């Protein structure tokens, strides 16, 4: 999978899991210790997140890290 | 999970999967398009890998990315 495709698909997956749980970007950012704008850039497929960020997002959304992988 | 713990545990998991498949650091590096020294640093828990690197390593080891998550 091309890096750019991966970033877009991860953003889509993150957005879907977040919205399915009716959690806003602001609340996710706050719970994950990240900024809202960073969450927005991830959602738009602009960020190749690190493993640490993947785990922070998973903890904040109360899912396993694997469940966020596209 | 603390970022440092995550890096160490990811390195241990990557090393275990690689050695279980009798694949050397050199062969994994070559297949994943990374350097042997970078693989060594990941093994030693010194790198917070990106999602793209996680997928490259998983493809090279012929496992799912989720199987490399600690």
Automatic annotation (TrEMBL), chains A, B:
PANTHER family the UniProt entry points to: HTH-TYPE TRANSCRIPTIONAL REGULATOR, METHYLPHOSPHONATE SYNTHASE
Gene Ontology molecular function: any one: DNA binding
Entry-linked InterPro entries: Cro/C1-type_HTH (IPR001387), Lambda_DNA-bd_dom_sf (IPR010982), TransReg_Diox_bact_type (IPR050807)
Residue ranges constituting the HTH cro/C1-type domain according to the UniProt record: 14-68
Organism: Thalassomonas viridans
Protein's UniProt name: Helix-turn-helix transcriptional regulator
Alphabetic keyword roster: DNA-binding
Any single GO CC term annotated in Swiss-Prot or TrEMBL for this entry: cytosol
